[in-house]
């Protein structure tokens, strides 16, 4: 599982409340990503990070912010949650694979299921 | 940015038959094409990938082919088994750090 954990794993919240999701990795990988997964859309990149305090937007970044104050943690914040942000959120890291797959493969965390009422 | 289209969206095959999923991409600079398998309620997991300097890659019952000229790549699963039932995603990258995913194919293997 490439040492990736996500918390919480499930969350129910109300429209307008702030929500922070955490991704934690134990193996000092430089690149970390946040995706959302919705039926019919596959996985869409929200934000990614290429180092401490270095982040950039993905294709669906509106309404989301991120922070990375240390290598092992990448936080995704919904400043004011909306029902359209109900989704499954996956964190991923990018690492060089030593066998089988090619280099710089992305590996995913277990996901966080978020419901905004 | 890169746009990846994936077909079909659903695929039902008889156990033992082959399954083929096709993806097209828009950016001719893309050079890395992984495939992920996602079982119900689980995380996507890499099953095979290919780089643009290779036309085909195999790993036991799965293979991926790449046609750079036509900008499409395909996943082939032979001798399908019930455990192959899952959602499969293709992806493309023009560098090694950002992936664009297809919408997914739900594969059902009938016993």
Descriptive notes:
Chain A is an all-beta fold. Helices cover 0% and strands 58% of the residues of chain A. In chain A, the strands form 2 sheets. In chain A, strands 2, 4, 5, 6, 9, 10 and 11 form a 7-stranded mixed sheet that branches. Chain A has a 4-stranded antiparallel sheet with strand order 1-3-8-7, with no helix packed on it. Chain A is globular. About 4% of the residues of chain A have low confidence. Chain B is an all-beta fold. Helix content of chain B is 0%, strand content 55%. Chain B contains no helices and 11 strands. In chain B, the strands form 2 sheets. In chain B, strands 2, 4, 5, 9, 10 and 11 form a 6-stranded mixed sheet that branches. A 5-stranded antiparallel sheet of chain B has the order 1-3-8-7-6, with no helix packed on it. In chain B, a hairpin with a 2-residue loop joins strand 6 and strand 7.
- Which pair of protein chains has the largest interface, and what are the residue counts? A-B, 25 and 26 residues
- What is the count of β-strands of chain A? 11
Mind telling me the C-alpha Rg of chain A? 14 Å
Distance N to C terminus of chain B: 41 Å
By DSSP, the count of extended strands of chain B is: 11
**What gap, in angstroms, lies between the N and C termini of chain A?**
31 Å
């Amino acid at each position: 599982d490439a040492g990736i954990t996500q918390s919480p794993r499930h969350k129910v919240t109300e429209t307008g409340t702030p929500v922070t999701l955490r991704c934690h990795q134990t193996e000092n990988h430089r690149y970390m990503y946040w995706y959302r997964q919705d039926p019919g859309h596959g996985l869409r990149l929200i934000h990614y990070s290429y180092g401490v305090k270095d982040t950039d937007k993905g294709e669906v970044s509106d309404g989301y912010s991120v922070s990375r104050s240390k290598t092992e943690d990448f936080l995704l914040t919904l400043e004011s949650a909306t029902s359209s942000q109900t989704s499954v959120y996956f964190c991923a890291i990018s690492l060089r694979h030593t066998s089988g797959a090619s280099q710089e493969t992305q590996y995913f965390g277990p996901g966080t299921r978020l419901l905004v009422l | 940015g890169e746009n990846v289209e994936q077909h079909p969206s659903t695929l039902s095959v008889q156990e033992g038959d082959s399954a083929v999923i096709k993806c097209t991409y828009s950016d001719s600079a893309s050079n890395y094409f992984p495939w992920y398998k996602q079982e119900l309620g689980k995380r996507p997991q890499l099953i095979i990938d290919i780089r643009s300097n290779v036309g085909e890659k195999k790993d036991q019952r799965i293979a991926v082919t790449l046609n750079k000229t036509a900008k499409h790549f395909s996943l082939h699963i032979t001798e399908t088994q019930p455990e192959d039932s899952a959602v499969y995603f293709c992806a493309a990258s023009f560098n090694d750090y950002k992936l664009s995913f297809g919408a997914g194919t739900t594969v059902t293997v009938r016993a």
